[in-house]
Amino acid sequence: MVELNKALFCNLGDRSVDGYFIFNCTAQNFSYLNKSISNIWELGLDEIMANPRLLAEQVHTEDLTHVISCYQECVEEDGTEKKYEFRLLFADREKYVRVIVFVVADGGVKYLVGTVEDTTVMRHNKIHIEQINARKNITLEVLAHDLKEPLGMMKLTASSMEDGIAQTGDEQMMNSLAFIKEMCERNLLLVRSMINREFLKSSIVEIGKERADLVWELRDVVRFYKRSKLGKMKNIKFTSAAEHIYLRLDSMKFLQVINNLISNAIKFTADYGNITLHAEEYESTVLITVADDGIGIPEELQAGLFNHLPETLRPGLKGEESGGFGMGIIKAIVDLHRGKIWFKSKIGVGTTFYIELPK
């Protein structure tokens, strides 16, 4: 445990736009607060110094249990820097704050010393970017599905015209039909390669986990699918055992996992079939399931499903191609979250994927 140079710390705090604090764990009061703490909590410094519990009263009700457990963790453990994020709730808005705190000793007394940063703008921007990224990936899947049928019909029509035109000996028309067929095939491959490339990006970048509301994230993905043409051809729904489930994850990458599982379910489920996403919270884990009543996975393909094996690849019910690496990357991203993934499947009955993540 390091010693506290209080004068230097307070000098830094008096000059900083971030909040600086020193909290006496024994006396349960603040030895030091800078002006920025007052600005972030929108309370007077004298009020906070006189009654530190006022800070807790501003914490969002959904995050209060989380904040209490964070405080207990800090008091019980020594020497390790801790970082936490939670929300403050005001009458017309909420704020996100990030606290960096560690334990120091001064004259045998234990203190919590740290800084507070208002991350509201950064957090809102991150949420917005995650929404855009998730919707972009879904849009690519929808685009691939919607383009395959008309481009396939164009290619088939061009092929059927070739025999008749070949008899006329019109070389220019034959070349034009060949060009149409080639362009149809090329554009189908282009869209699929874009999807594959985007999913590959999700696995090669290190994850950055932050506290997130899993229910909100999953509901937003399903809502976007249901608004698309694909959603009108399948019965896609989301259920949850709780209104909010909070855990630490890299939302952008994990939503790509969910997007890929839903996309696969769509490929192997007949029109107007059922696809269900469900979230269940336990004491130390969260279980997410993606279930469908599609054609199922043949038993001989199940063992190598997460291992990039070529023999596990198969086209969807409407001829949708497989990228050949999706399941391997799904498992890699789940592993990076220290989670587990497995599945159960029966031919003609359907498939259910299970993802278990630590809280």
Automatic annotation (TrEMBL):
GO molecular function, one term: kinase activity
InterPro entries assigned: HATPase_C_sf, HATPase_dom, His_kinase_dom, HisK_dim/P_sf, PAS-like_dom_sf, Sensor_HK_Regulatory, Sig_transdc_His_kin-like_C
Organism from which the protein derives: Pedobacter riviphilus
Lineage: Bacteria, Pseudomonadati, Bacteroidota, Sphingobacteriia, Sphingobacteriales
Sequence ranges assigned to domain Histidine kinase in this UniProt record: 142-359
Protein name: histidine kinase
Record field: transmembrane: none
ATP-binding is among the record's keywords: no
EC id: 2.7.13.3
PROSITE patterns (alphabetical): HIS_KIN
SUPFAM superfamilies: ATPase domain of HSP90 chaperone/DNA topoisomerase II/histidine kinase, Homodimeric domain of signal transducing histidine kinase, PYP-like sensor domain (PAS domain)
Source taxon at top rank: Bacteria
Keywords in alphabetical order: Kinase, Transferase, Two-component regulatory system
Top EC category: transferase
Catalytic activity: ATP + protein L-histidine = ADP + protein N-phospho-L-histidine
